[in-house]
């Protein structure tokens, strides 16, 4: 097997199937990452969504017998919509982060990785391969950094010279000994614009994030969002792009290479009030194809309620009162009580008093009480 020629062929084929960048690295342990992950765990900065076994996250040899190298890929996604929709009084809109525009990126990258696997197997039938995207054990960013895809920015994203940080990442472990590529040197320098732009201060320092405070994480939780973060969420109903849009490297970066990544404006920036009344089937029909739907309907509805409070949209008062009085979820009832208090008005005060008499959940009662204090 001519590994050098195979690498050249693989790079050429990757361009044919719509992979925007490909890199190769060894399958050694990620020792530096291990120390960082242990520290994150000690500080309580982890999100809880990641692989819990740190050894698996840093040791490719635990995921495949005798791995020799890892192939990293990146696909660029758009940062601006070609078609725009604007909210207006009475028809306010929420916002999905750019990583949830178009078809769920897990499907897109898995498709490209599967094609790479098939290509490799035609050349090396005995090759062992294991691909993963985001939900796999390895850290996509650590692999991409070591494979020369980009550098790990202060905003904890991989930043590529060509596409900025607007890239999806995936990787493939293999027993083929490809020659490693050279990592890209850090180019953030003294810039701290991403840290300054973070709405909640979740970027503790360059390259370190407290995921528990990150809006992207908070919008994906299923519980009541802590008071101190609600006003900072704005009209984001999934994810957050503040640290990306603030990055100077991302200025002017907007690539529309992949049709399946093109956003439907009515999905990426949907009307808020209709979200509150969606059935499970309607939610799946409207949002089921995008990455932001993975946690289900309730978190999106909770975030839509927070967004309506952000706009102080008094046309939403009847909808929010209906949630407060009829919704089965205590999280949604409690968030609606908070939102109504933010909007205010006599009809709100009456509805809160009425709900107070009937509410049996203590966490919702607390939200009602807090909102009623706005009227004293």
Description:
By secondary structure, the chain is an alpha+beta fold. The chain has helices spanning 3-16, 31-43, 54-58, 105-123, 140-146, 193-197, 215-218, 227-233, 242-245, 265-268, 272-275, 280-287, 297-311, 317-326, 330-343, 346-358, 362-372, and strands at residues 21-26, 69-76, 95-96, 129-132, 151-152, 158-159, 167-174, 203-205, 208-209, 236-238. The strands form 4 sheets. The chain has a 4-stranded antiparallel beta sheet with strand order 1-2-7-4, sandwiched between helices. A hairpin with a 5-residue loop joins strand 5 and strand 6. Helix 1 (3-16) runs antiparallel to helix 4. The longest helix has 19 residues, at 105-123.
Written as H for each helix and E for each strand, in order along the chain, the element string is HEHHEEHEHEEEHEEHHEHHHHHHHHH
Overall mean pLDDT score?
Answer: 97
Report, as a whole number of angstroms, the end-to-end distance: 79 Å
Residues in helices, as a percent range: 40-55%
Radius of gyration: 23 Å
The main sheet orders its strands as 1-2-7-4
Task: Give the total of beta strands.
Answer: 10
Shape, principal axes of CA atoms: elongated
Continuous helix count? 17
Q: Which regions contain 5 or more consecutive residues with pLDDT less than 50?
A: none
Structural class: alpha+beta
Main sheet characteristics:
4 strands, antiparallel
> How much of the sequence is in beta strands?
5-15%
